[in-house]
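Quick bug: FAR1 domain-containing protein output formatted oddly.
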Amino acid sequence: MSVEAIPTPQHNLSSHHNLDPDLGYPPFPTLQIPQLPPAPQLQLPPLPKIPQDVPPAQQPEQEQDTPQDADAADPVEESSYDPSEPIYSLPPPPQRAYPSRETLVEAAQTHAAEHGYAVSINNTWKSQQRVKVACVCYGKPKNTHKLSEETRVRKNRTSHKTGCRMWVEGRRREEDGLWWLTVKESRHNHPGREVGAFAVHRKSTWDSGRVKEVIDEEVARGTKAKKLLEILEEKCPGVRITKRDIYNQTAQARRGGLRQQTPKEERARANAQKRAASRAKNKQNAANSSTTDTASSAAEGGMSALDPELLAQCNTAVSNAELERLRAEIQRLQNENSRLSSENDRLFRTNQEYVQAEELRRHIQMVQSHSGHHMIS
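Here's what came back:
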């Protein structure tokens, strides 16, 4: 390595003190600076080119499209897994093109049913060109009341969400209009289940409409859920349904007014109404007969005044009882009117027959009289 000597200044004065030549400074020492070799040039490899036949879902995203759903931000991280979290490899749907978004989602659902899980649409972008289909266990249950593990009293009994990260994306290709399915995350954190464990798979066996018809018919008859389950298994072979599904369907049917009361229930309701009306009438009579005594006792502190709300209920019950009596009287009068109308019609027909008979008798007499005159002449 070669070393160059840097020349020192020839004057003995500092350039900063030229105004006073009497003040001198020692000369600068000679510095020895090593000469470094030139740095070698790095040869960078060329960047790989993206092939043109790769579907758009695998190329870098250019558009910043926003999802329509409120939970557009993924509730879990797809990039990293907790080492202590179990991983289950349930086969994801195949990556291929489909003619429409509905066909893509249906194919993903069919594939999931065959491998022990279910999927649903997680969100859809505003452009309607992309759709996110995730496992039904994707994410975690929503904590709407901001509860912690210490403050939570009831356990989760309805949600299937386990924090699973499995999801696929469907994207529409502009060149041919087909929808391409791309697997974004294939790992699950839960084992596979039977097909009937998910409601979406059970409901797929109800598409014929026969199941709902049978449920509506049996609900109208007041059939119990256990018996209804046996009837469905007999009338609809291959149907997947649970007691909870039947309870939900019967509740919807009752809210829709399809259920008819049984004769026993109607009699019980009528008897309850009669007893309530009788009690209300007795209370009203007692209240009317002892109004003065009640007021004086309340003034002395021996008895509290009657509750106005209770009095209003009693008055309503009495009014209802009186209304029922008037309705019964109206029905009796209508029946009597019908009977009198029938009797009037019978008398009218009898009168018509009598008039016709009288006219016939007179006609016979006239004929006989004319016949007698001809014989005499």
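Actually, after a second look the formatting is fine. The two ends are 185 Å apart (CA to CA). Closing.
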